[in-house]
Design brief:
The chain is an alpha+beta fold. The chain has 2 domains: 153 residues, no CATH class; 93 residues. It is 61% helix and 9% strand. It is globular and about 70 Å long. Bound molecules: zinc ion.
């Protein structure tokens, strides 16, 4: 599960819209790793990539933070390796509210994507004619905010979609809901790993098997396979833990244990 990373002397700290923001040093490492292929084009591209990841993750977490604020609690934003967190000062009660908080992150990214697209359509700032660097900035802003938002909505723990799935399952199946949502999480993660690996193999054989899919349909990469592989295993472990707690339910009062 995503837990708050420890504080380090190398944290970058600032306030944005009155929210305290902390950027863990591993955030920069993770962003550079994800954009490692841009180094072939030049250091400028890598720097643009890292800036895009920074802005996009900040906007995503701001979505959660603003929703928390709407429901009466402020939060601290932490950017960490391969992801971020908005940690509220107090928990939000009510399934509907918690679902809105979870959806607000990807939604904020979609809004940013829409703004980038609309300003480009109106002024043409992202045209290739304005230079390769500007065009790369435009494309990565669209890509990161659109596809990462979609990826986050899959009902896999601990992604935002996984949180929504847990709330929805809890509403329909009560205490059994958590276990059902973990099973959904394992199933979806396994499916995405298979799909991503299939895409990788297909790309090696000139992409003939998946050519029926439209060009904009997200293709999986080795990164996607690794990510969902790890998340699937995590969900499996959480499910085993749930089973264990259920079988070893201890009724004794604490001092008798
Ligand atoms: Zn999120």
């Amino acid at each position: 599960m995503l837990v708050e990373p420890e504080r380090t002397p190398y944290d970058l700290r600032f306030r944005f819209l009155r929210f305290p923001v902390r950027v863990h040093p591993l955030f920069w490492v993770g962003s550079a790793l994800m954009g490692a292929s841009t180094l072939e084009l030049g250091l400028h591209y890598m720097l643009i990539w890292i800036a895009v990841v920074f802005v996009s993750m900040l906007v995503h977490e701001l979505g959660h933070a603003l929703a928390f604020r709407l429901f009466g609690t402020d939060s601290e934003i932490v950017l960490y390796i391969f992801g971020g967190l908005a940690i509220p000062w107090s928990q939000v009660s009510g399934r509907g509210r918690r679902i809105i908080v979870s959806l607000a992150g990807p939604f904020a990214g979609f809004v940013l994507c829409g703004i980038v697209y609309a300003t480009h359509k109106a002024t043409g700032w992202g045209d290739l004619a304005n230079g390769l660097l500007v065009w790369y900035l435009y494309i990565s802003l669209i890509f990161v905010n659109l596809y990462w938002g979609i990826l986050n909505l899959f009902p896999v723990f601990p992604l935002d979609g996984g949180q929504v799935s847990r709330e929805v399952c809890g509403k329909f199946w009560g205490p059994r809901g958590k276990r059902i949502s973990l099973k959904i999480s394992i199933g979806v993660a396994a499916f995405l790993v298979v799909y991503a690996l299939f895409c990788v193999i297909d790309a090696r054989s000139r992409g003939e098997m998946l050519s029926f899919l439209p060009w904009w349909f997200p293709r999986g990469s080795l990164w996607t396979a690794i990510l969902f592989g790890i998340l699937g295993v995590q969900s499996y472990q959480l499910l085993k833990q749930e089973d264990w707690t259920e079988r070893h339910w201890d009724d004794r009062v604490p001092w008798e244990r």
